[in-house]
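agent> fetching stored inputs for the octanoyl-coenzyme A docking request
agent> found them:
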Amino acid sequence: MSNTNSRGADPGPPARSTALTPPADATAPVRHPEAPAPGELLGAHYGHCFGCGGEQPHGLHLAARAEEGVRVTAEFTVRPAHQGAPGLAHGGLLATALDETLGSLNWLLRVIAVTGKLETDFVRPVPVDTVLHLDAEVTAVAGRKIYSTATGRIGGPDGPVAVRAAALFIEVKVDHFIENGRPAEIRAAMADPDRARRARAFEVNP
Ligand SMILES: CCCCCCCC(=O)SCCNC(=O)CCNC(=O)[C@H](O)C(C)(C)COP(=O)(O)OP(=O)(O)OC[C@H]1O[C@@H](n2cnc3c(N)ncnc32)[C@H](O)[C@@H]1OP(=O)(O)O
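agent> prediction call returned; pasting tokens
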């Protein structure tokens, strides 16, 4: 059995759907003046978030860190609960790791936004126990539309690319969550006595 990647060592940049190409009038992203300093861990935005929360036993427990500009890095260790095929990470969970990392970029912009489109390339299989090193940045902003890309490498932060994504996040108001979320969880999150945690559950500036 061979693990050889038929696309070769460096498959090069993929073709993207036009919806993920910023329009001509898009502008460069602007890091919020109160964004966490480069090197600072962002911490979970919501304890029950499957991507980053500590209260999800089988969640990804992804830890993202602010970098310079509008860029974050993150790590996710693939555990047995994350398998798709025997001993290999489920592709949907790898997409979740990319989505979560890309989503955390909005905290550097201090904008509330949700994923509208997420396009993922699965380049190499990712075995259980592997640490996926993620790196994401916002590339452009056009009105409510936030364009971003991410890669996930294995074997170290400079190792080969295993997954990558391009995404379009859409800015929303906090009402998006209040009007659409299940009332029990909305009430519980709003009742949190910790003001910063209450705000971050909905990704609002504390
Ligand atoms: C730290 C936080 C971590 C979070 C990490 C995880 C993030 C997530 O997974 S969020 C959960 C998954 N996403 C969702 O549930 C979103 C569900 N979708 C929605 O609620 C809506 O479709 C929403 C809000 C995205 C857009 O609806 P709405 O606000 O009415 O905007 P709408 O007017 O349709 O679109 C605005 C613009 O975005 C574009 N757009 C919207 N959706 C898409 C899409 N899927 N593809 C391409 N373009 C899109 C529209 O074409 C429009 O462009 P333009 O301004 O040029 O005409």
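agent> quick read of the result: Residues 25-172 form a domain with the Thiol Ester Dehydrase; Chain A fold (CATH 3.10.129.10).
agent> awaiting further instructions
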